[in-house]
Design brief:
FAD binds at residues 86, 220. Keywords: FAD, Flavoprotein. This protein is an alpha/beta fold. The protein has a domain at 5-46 and 197-292 and 444-477 and 485-500: 3-Layer(bba) Sandwich (FAD/NAD(P)-binding domain), CATH 3.50.50. The chain is built from 12 helices and 25 strands. The chain has helices spanning 17-29, 46-49, 103-111, 119-129, 155-166, 198-203, 255-265, 271-276, 389-406, 409-412, 429-436, 486-500, and strands spanning 7-13, 34-37, 66-67, 80-81, 130-136, 139-141, 145-147, 182-185, 190-191, 194-195, 212-215, 218-226, 229-237, 240-252, 268-269, 283-284, 296-303, 317-322, 337-339, 354-361, 369-372, 379-382, 417-420, 438-439, 469-471. Strands 1, 2, 11, 12, 13, 14 and 25 form a 7-stranded mixed sheet that branches. Strands 8, 17, 18, 19, 20, 23 and 24 form a 7-stranded antiparallel sheet that branches. Strands 6-5-7 form a 3-stranded mixed sheet. Helix 4 crosses helix 12 and helix 9 (389-406) crosses helix 11.
Length: 502
């Protein structure tokens, strides 16, 4: 199936966090036509709109419902990796937490050979994105995306903050400000009690422009490459095969799982591995699917005697902290995230009244890979979680920190009782970590940016060796950022727009 609606100057694959931003900016800055292809459907589901109901979206039609391959260092488990198959992408499924990352993250990107990506260069782009509810010299208040920073958290969340302070962790009024360390209320992409994705803020307001076409239920299978140039994509749209033609460029914004998988299925990747999978190589690009990185959480769960109530219009995660697993670290490597409910695993038990301090590691050493089993086979996701012993040690430090916070006087007043891992876990803590470690839903790095032979895209996000093809999502991160990856993904899309249409 081909028609004029499937022929544009730019074809964008994925209407998630990055694709929505890139489409809007190209329409604003050029006279080009833009076609956006999204595999999922509408984001008008009331469950999506309500940030308190995010867990109800897992394993639904809005979730790609990916699982890792068995993880030998995580008790052999296959870990669930929720990814958004819906307008707005994973921004329609996540906790709406807005974290720029640490300035050192971007300076490291630049130091790895990526000019234009240092903190000094990207910080103004963040301010261009943001429409904060309170002004500050270091952040934006007139951008497109609303960011909520002033709200009254649940009473249990206030007690968690007080307990952290009692353990010696300072309160930080703004982790996106001059320093990242300390405990804070989270900043959220919420307005009037509803989730706001980049599809809401960027894409939907631009859909009345006749040069912009959005097609949902459009599953892209592979790229069309002719004479070394990407000229379009093929797939299935509403049950029928289609080909979309791009006169200028194909822009992949399908996320760290699907952008890399699409390249591999199109014959762009490690040539010998592609041949072994039954895929004819188009370009030997060894880095595709390598450098898969994620953040990791381990539940520390408490029951409570006092009744825990939830504030409507807010997610269950309302506070977090950035801290160090050991002294001497220049950048925090831990980010415990706090939920106003007990997040039991299926094998756990306990009362419904409780809270969870999710011990978080955000600068992991373990790195994994992504593969595809043939041109139409499943994606093999192997994050290699906890393969590096240092990651277990650092998560153990995060767990002990959460245990200490849960035992502080401010939470004893709530009758807090540790259910998991339990105060007596002791030497078995590493076993508990391997049995319970969870993805933080922050997959990155599979189409890494750089200039070395293992890089997939160059500093201008162009796929090396293929003309007319760029990747602009979390897959291009040379190193995963310190904290939630949604805001950095928005930044990547904004920078892509700057590079394509300055």
């Amino acid at each position: 199936m081909t028609d004029d609606d499937l022929h544009a100057d730019y074809v964008i694959v994925g209407a998630g966090t990055a694709g929505a931003v890139l489409a809007r900016r190209l329409i604003e800055r050029t006279e080009a036509t833009v076609l956006v292809l999204e595999a999922g459907g509408s984001d008008r589901d009331p469950v999506i709109r309500d940030p308190a109901r995010m867990h109800e979206l897992w394993h639904t039609a809005a979730d790609w419902d990916y699982y890792t391959v068995p993880q030998p260092h995580a008790a052999g488990r296959c870990l669930h990796m929720p990814r958004g198959r819906v307008l707005g992408g994973s921004h329609s499924l996540n906790a709406t937490i807005y974290v720029r990352g640490n300035p050192a993250d971007y300076d490291e990107w630049a130091a790895l050979g990526n000019p234009g990506w240092s903190w000094q260069e990207v910080e103004p782009v963040f301010r261009r994105i943001e429409r904060y509810d309170r002004p500050a010299a270091h952040r934006g208040d007139s951008g497109i995306l609303p960011v909520l920073s002033v709200f009254e958290p649940d009473p249990i969340q206030r007690a968690i903050m007080a307990a952290a302070e009692q353990t010696g962790i300072p309160v930080n009024p703004d982790y996106n400000g001059p320093t990242q360390e300390g405990i804070s209320t989270v900043q959220l992409t919420i307005h009037d009690g509803e989730r706001v994705t980049t599809a809401d803020a960027y894409l939907t307001p631009a859909l009345d422009n006749p040069r912009l076409t959005l097609r949902t239920d459009a599953l892209v299978h592979r790229l069309v490459v002719r004479d070394g140039r990407a000229t379009g994509v093929t797939g299935v749209l509403a049950g029928q095969s289609f080909t979309a033609v791009a006169d200028e460029a194909v822009l992949l914004t399908a996320g760290a799982i699907d952008s890399a998988a699409l390249l591999l299925r199109s014959g762009i990747g490690p040539a010998e591995e592609l041949r072994a999978s039954g895929i004819a190589p188009v370009l030997n690009l060894p880095g595709v699917g390598r450098d898969l990185t994620d953040h990791w959480l381990v539940p520390v769960i408490f029951a409570a005697e006092r009744n825990i109530v939830h504030t409507p219009g807010l997610p269950p995660a309302q506070t977090h902290l950035f801290w160090h697993s050991e002294s001497g670290l220049a950048v925090p490597d831990l980010q415990p995230l706090h939920f106003s409910s007990p997040l039991y695993e299926p094998w756990m038990s306990g009362p419904a009244n409780g809270f969870s301090l999710m011990a978080g590691l955000v600068r992991p050493s373990s790195v994994g890979t992504l593969t595809v089993a043939g041109p139409d086979g499943p994606t093999g996701i192997d994050p290699n979680v906890l393969a590096e012993p240092r990651d277990v040690r650092r998560l153990a430090a995060a767990v002990r920190l959460c245990q200490e916070i849960g035992a502080a006087p401010a939470l004893r007043k709530w009758g807090a009782v540790q259910r998991y891992p339990g105060p007596g876990v002791g030497e078995n803590l590493s076993g508990y970590i391997r049995r319970t470690v969870l993805t933080y839903h922050h997959a990155a790095g599979t189409c890494r940016m750089g200039t070395d032979p293992g890089a997939v895209v160059d500093p201008e996000l162009r796929v090396r060796g293929i003309d007319g093809l760029r990747v602009a999502d979390a897959s291009i991160m040379p190193r995963i950022t310190t904290g939630n990856t949604n805001a950095p993904t928005i930044l990547i899309a904004e920078r892509a727009a700057d590079l394509i249409a300055p």
